[in-house]
Amino acid sequence: MSHPLTPFIPVCDAIATLFSPHVEAVLHDLETGLIFHIANAFSRRRPGDSSLNEAGLASTLDEDVIGPYSKSNWDGRRLKAITSVLRDGEGKPVGLLCINHDIEVFVGIFHQLKSMMDIASPLPKTSALMAQDWREAVNLVIGEFLTQHRTSLAGLTGSEVDGLLALLETRGVFAIRKAVPYVAEILKLSRATIYNRLGAIRLKQDAAPQGEPQ
Q: What is the pTM of this model?
């Protein structure tokens, strides 16, 4: 009669192979308290080593899945682990399948990306550089409009173009010299079209109660 944990060996090997070299899969024999099988053993443990489980552990295993939880490898590397309780045909716990995921490399990547995204000392908006970059102000207004309407420049309808121009007008963008050519270039419209639409928008705004267009 084969050992009850033998059928789980290919499961261990498959998980460890798929996520190699970052995942270790360990089969613990609850009857002997020893490691029955281990795949991609970066924890330096071997089959036959003590599982170091507490006595009477099997009687406390009510859940089928334990975790995820954090662990530390022998070299201090951080691990994210999860354990599956393996039971016999009568539901008695006979083993544990522990999957240890070495997340240290991903933590390093996360911190690297975070450092690239963070601006530790952003330039104050009142700096000469930012104050003179009126194009950024235009871009911010356009980005705000596109976000609110969940669309893109290419997807703007005619009425949405008018809405965007109205918002830019309300924000005072067109009081900036050269703003019309810049907006025309972004919207891929002629300057004449921008001026014509602006004229209609201004007439409409003059006739309507004061308020910011939506």
A: 0.55
| 55 pLDDT higher than 90 | no
Are residues 27 and 9 in contact, defined by beta-carbon separation less than 8 angstroms?
yes
Give the bridge partners for 93, in sequence order. 87
In terms of Cα–Cα distance, which of 137, 208, 207 is closest to 173?
137
Q: Are strands 23-29 and 34-39 parallel, antiparallel or unpaired?
A: antiparallel
Please state, in angstroms and rounded to a whole number, the distance separating the CA atoms of residues 10 and 15. 9
- Please report which confidence band the pLDDT of residue 25 belongs to, taking 50, 70 and 90 as the band edges: very high
How far apart (Å, rounded) are the C-alpha atoms in residues 212 and 170?
7
Locus of tokens 């450092």: 115
Compute CA 172 distance to the chain's CA centroid, rounded to the nearest angstrom: 37
Task: For residues 41-45, give the mean pLDDT.
Answer: 90
What tokens does 162 get? 């008018």
Contacts by residues 104-111 (CB-CB < 8 Å, ≥ 24 positions apart): 104/77, 104/78, 105/22, 107/78
Partners of residue 37 on adjacent β-strands: 27
- CA 136 and chain centroid, separation: 27
Determine how β-strand 65-72 pairs with β-strand 23-29.
Answer: unpaired
Query: Which tokens in the block code for residue 148?
Result: 């609110």
Residues in the chain: 214
- Residue 195: name the closest of 187, 184, 210, 186 by CA: 184
- Answer yes or no: are the C-beta atoms of 5 and 98 closer than 8 Å: no
